[in-house]
Amino acid sequence: MTPYKVFIVGHEGTTGLRIHERLSDRKDIELLATADEDRKNVEAIKEVAKEADIVFLCLPDVASKEIMAAIGELPCKVIDTSTAFRTADDWAYGFPELGADYKTAIATEKHIANPGCHASGMIACIAPLVKAGLVPTDYPFTITSLTGYSGGGKKMIGQYESEPKDYFLYAPRQYGLSQQHKHLPEVQHVCGLSEAPIFMPIVDDYYSGMEVTVGIHSRLCNKPVSIDTVQQALEDFYKDSTIITVVPFAENSNTGMLNANQLSNTDSMKIYVTGNDERIMVHAIFDNLGKGASGAAVQCMNIALGLPEDTGLALG
Ligand SMILES: NC(=O)C1=CN([C@@H]2O[C@H](COP(=O)(O)OP(=O)(O)OC[C@H]3O[C@@H](n4cnc5c(N)ncnc54)[C@H](OP(=O)(O)O)[C@@H]3O)[C@@H](O)[C@H]2O)C=CC1
Ligand SMILES: CC(=O)N[C@@H](CCC(=O)OP(=O)(O)O)C(=O)O
């Protein structure tokens, strides 16, 4: 069988490297590249893209937009990992677990926007509950998200791994304080929320892994919901997924700790429901570089090529 031709633009960056790692041993994939000195040359990128079946863009937003302007009309499928196209109507949104319509769009559309890392956790917790009619679309969500420093790409990795290190980098650091985080538009768009959540991202001194926590007051729901109802709705929603699993409540002691790096180096996501019938928490644990970026991008590529979605992924 002729291998599929795949071109990773930005393959020396954090997300690009991880996609490269996941594909380099696959016999069904041939990786294409520009000459090293041409890795930022748009014309050279366009020439390689002409040969490709799939192009991954693993770049800052501005560079993604510039390259899309040059390659958008070519026959190759494009999977963009930046924020640039996630709410664009003519791009598929790369979260196939959201339903058959999402999966079909990923399989058939030419351009696929890979979700943001924090956004993936928020959407995984909220969308099933809104779709089930349990939580209203104007619910006043307050959401925390813990992330390892690789979420900030090469620049932040350099900051955390340089010696001597700034004293403040040893402790968790909250950001997004103005409530304008770049992932909020896609969360609102995909979940159909009329109001943006309060969002509190926190970056800490570990390499990778995320824990996103969504709090729900039962009394503020369409009608009061129990913790069992929330657990069941999430289990039903993700029952066919091999990548996202909902941890049975019995296995989740509700008394211990949740670890944000539990699924580092995997492409899976685990959902936990904790709390009680009055105050319910839904948590998504995954790797910002796995289901939060490169793993999700490869999952989308597999679907676009008609392969089983978890081909070559590390399921934890
Ligand atoms: N890190 C993460 O956890 C996640 C990242 N993302 C998104 O993925 C994209 C890539 O992020 P990440 O890998 O972290 O970023 P990095 O900074 O680690 O890597 C970006 C790479 O793109 C290269 N680059 C920049 N401009 C151009 C250009 N004009 N042409 C070609 N290459 C270029 C950079 O080159 P150079 O090496 O010279 O700087 C760098 O190697 C971003 O949009 C990011 O927001 C999405 C989800 C999670
Ligand atoms: C720790 C850190 O800074 N993380 C980044 C998210 C990385 C990411 O997902 O960026 P994209 O939107 O391009 O996908 C942030 O919160 O802005």
Radius of gyration from the CA trace?
19 Å
Tell the overall outline.
globular
Question: Low-confidence parts lasting 5 or more residues at pLDDT below 50?
Answer: none
**Hey, roughly how much beta strand do the residues contain?**
15-25%
Oligomeric state of shown chains: single chain
**Describe the biggest sheet?**
7 strands, mixed
Strand order of the largest sheet: 8-9-7-10-13-12-11
Count every beta strand, where a strand is a DSSP E run of 2 or more residues: 13
Q: Please identify the structural class as seen in this structure.
A: alpha/beta
Bound molecules: NADPH dihydro-nicotinamide-adenine-dinucleotide phosphate, N-acetyl-L-glutamyl 5-phosphate
Keywords: Amino-acid biosynthesis, Arginine biosynthesis, Cytoplasm, NADP, Oxidoreductase
Active site: 117
Pfam family, one: Semialdhyde_dhC_1
Family: Belongs to the NAGSA dehydrogenase family. Type 2 subfamily.
